[in-house]
Amino acid sequence: MGKLIVIEGSDGSGKETQTRLLYEYLKAQGRRVRRVSYPNYDSPSSSLVKMYLGSEFGPDAYAVNAYVASAFYAVDRFASYLKEWKAFYESDSGDGGEPIVICDRYVTSNMLHQASKLDTPEEKLAFLDWEYDFEYTKGGLPVPDCVFFLDVKPEVSLRLMKDRANKITHETRKDIHEADPGFLEKSYANSLLLAERYGWERIGCCDGGGNLKSIEEIHEMICRKLPL
Predict the structure, then answer these.
(1) Phi, psi of 137 (to 5 degrees)
(2) Can you point out the beta strands (E) in the chain?
């Protein structure tokens, strides 16, 4: 098997940018590397995700419970894995070494966002156990070798997302996750617990004054902690 590296974080934390930079860095080293992103909005497998985020099932994230919403995302990931990168990930090492897959979001996003809908620690733990079994054990998706968590505080994320276009509609109207500051704050608080519980590599993306560090500085922090 190859290596699976995940870039995770709250909405607006720079996951897409850091995934691209890491891909380019490894590619320049001659490594065998592939980049994937979730949800895969170009695939029909993301249809339920787009309906959910577009408020077709209700006006906010809580209109669909954590388990059902997670299934929407899981189906999209399963389809992408089988069609786009399973063969590469399982291929033998060749020139450039072992295959490396870098994911912008992954199963970890269900854990981060959907578990934040649950109130008690017991409910969260039951969900996390279910999620792990559903996608990794029963679904057969590979477990990440490393998860980089981009730690950006909610108030900074909200500022960064203010004028960002919706990734589905390309309009200024936000999806039901991004449009709810309270949900963003709960997801961030939940992510800190997850990073500690699962040993994610926490990348502090803000300086002491609450300002975002440079893209290059964040990239360098990730490269220094690569398990390669």
Answers:
(1) -80, -60
(2) 3-9, 33-37, 100-104, 146-151, 201-204
Contacts 24+ apart (CB under 8 A), 116-124: 116/183, 116/186, 116/187, 116/189, 116/190, 117/61, 117/62, 117/65, 117/66, 117/186, 118/66, 124/190, 124/193
CATH code, 99: 3.40.50.300
Identify the burial level of 95 via C-beta atoms within 10 angstroms of its C-beta, where 0-12 means exposed, 13-18 middle and 19 or more buried. exposed
* Structural domain for 202, as ranges: 3-224
- Predicted confidence (pLDDT) per residue in 61-99, tens digit: 999 999 999 999 999 999 999 999 999 999 998 888 999
Contact 151, 9 (CB under 8 A): yes
Report the domain count for the chain. Answer: 1
Measured from the Cβ of residue 119, the count of other Cβ atoms closer than 10 Å reads 9
Q: What three-state secondary structure class fits 209?
A: coil
